[in-house]
Amino acid sequence: MQQFLFDIPDAEREGFAKVATEKVAQILAARGVQGFPDADDRETEAVGRHVQELADQGMTKLGRILDDTQIADITKYLSGRPVYGGSTVWAHTDKVPTPLAEAKQAHSQAVHHIEDFMECPHLLETISSPFVLNLVGNYFGVIPTVSSPNLLWSFAGNKKGMAQNFHRDWDGFRHLVMFVYLTDVQKDSGAHEFIKRTHSYEYVSAKVEGQDSRENALQIEDLFCPYHDAPSLSLEQLNILFEGDAEVIEGPAGTAFIRNPFAFHRGIRPRIKDRCVIWTRFSGYHNGNAHNTSSEILEVDAYQNRLAWDVNHRYMFRTFLSSEFSSECLTSLAPLLFRGENLSVIKRCVRGLRTLKRRIT
Hints:
Elements: H1 2-7, H2 13-29, H3 41-57, E1 59-64, H4 68-78, E2 84-88, E3 92-93, H5 100-106, E4 109-111, H6 114-119, H7 123-127, H8 130-140, E5 145-154, E6 175-181, E7 192-195, H9 201-209, H10 235-241, E8 246-249, E9 255-259, E10 265-267, E11 275-283, H11 311-316, H12 334-337, H13 342-360
Antiparallel strand pairs: 1-9, 2-3, 2-4, 4-5, 5-11, 6-9, 6-11, 7-8, 7-10
């Protein structure tokens, strides 16, 4: 499945995402999973604005969604909780619980266990709010899948952490990531940097074609490399090609934004102060490529009173909270999507890939 994601021509990714989304909606409707949480007129208008920004820019800012009291509650709970050296629980850590102060000496990044994410006040409510679920669901056009809830520390210093070079994420045909800063963040304390509109193949292609003729000009294949932290891209080259498109997202603790991770992005290495952030993935379906955030799916009993545990929520949170959907093939819809009539779409995409390769070589 991962190789298939890489092999789809970038020019056809959005077209294939539309086909896949329509198929997902049909599969879910047959199982009673459909519709979005109720929203008032003001929220509906805001959702439409954010969805349009995501489509146009690849990123939308939500403003400050956690206040001082909520941040204080979160800080108090996390105080004294152990962390794991690495960037993502559970897939990319040393799996050794360590006091935060010791982890700062040994690692560039560390994460809390998913149970701390879930038990910490306000975090589960933040990623499951009707406003957020309406926003991402309307962007996808289908009930979203929530996965990979992560609570990440990036420590100040000279050690380089994961995802601190510009890169794309290749976890699906259409997916989003929500970030919420839990510390005050400036450029020198771990701000997120995003290159607007680079989720669009058409926009990137136009930029490449508009370059001045020079020896080190970037080619289209350089900009859609399916590998994390692609070494072929320099910061200088990207700044020249996408002049004026890069945005550094700063803000006080509680600041939130949602972005399309297929666009170029990075976490700037913090120099003077540690950064703590939560991030969570949303997608039209779960293809099995998102990082595992736990060694096993959690029982929902301890958290059920904090969620509207109806059929839609049981489906949306199935990748890390146990429900009737967790053990079925609906955990990954890929087996249902990529068979039958959809095979013709796959074959057309592969043919398009060969044509694209001939054009760029």
